[in-house]
TrEMBL record:
Keywords: Signal. Residues 1-23 form the signal peptide. It comes from the Bacteria. The keyword Protease does not apply. It holds the Pfam family Slp. It comes from Luteibacter pinisoli. This is Slp family lipoprotein.
Length: 168
């Protein structure tokens, strides 16, 4: 290889490695029984997915507490490589995350972003406003409510371009 190409290749390789290291690792490990489909697909064909494992996330709509469990209604979004919900993307349906015991609604506030790992447990018909809706049910094994700082983590403030920019 010519010395001039080596001088160009080394900085490019270092930059690639540095940027790849910025994204945090996924928080949950997918299983061999994992269904990589959105909630809207499961709602349409629940029998096809049975009791598959899922890793889903989205924005918390509401929390309902019952005698022996709690249910968190979630507006689903696709997940990034770190399993954070991409809330600026198009929603992929709603689902109900069923959690054992009591869930404090202050720890799971409406509007917060959440990722869950669990097993599909059928569907339930309910309403979104006045419209009838089929919610996939997920029996949650693990859950994580994302903080604003965690949502920003792994997004380097690096940009390339020519010109003047203003950051507010």
């Amino acid at each position: 290889m010519r010395p001039s190409l080596v001088r160009l290749a080394v900085p490019a390789a270092l930059l690639t490695v540095a940027l790849a290291g910025c994204a945090p690792a996924p928080i949950y490990k997918a299983t061999s029984n994992n269904a990589a489909v959105p909630p809207s697909q499961v709602a349409r064909e629940p029998e096809r997915y049975g009791s598959s494992d899922v890793i889903w996330g989205g924005r918390i709509v509401q929390v309902r507490n019952f005698a022996d469990h709690s249910e968190v209604e979630v507006l689903a979004y696709p997940l990034d490589s770190s399993q954070r919900p991409k809330a600026d993307d198009t929603g992929t349906g709603r689902f109900i995350a069923a959690m054992p015991g009591y869930v404090e609604s202050l720890d799971f506030p409406a509007g917060s972003l959440l990722t869950v790992s669990g097993r599909l447990n059928g569907t339930r018909t309910g309403n979104v406003g006045q419209a009838s809706y089929t919610f996939p049910l997920v029996s949650v094994n693990q859950s994580h409510v994302w903080t604003a700082k965690e949502m920003q983590g792994g997004h380097p403030n690096i940009s390339f371009g020519v010109g003047v920019g203003v950051i507010r």
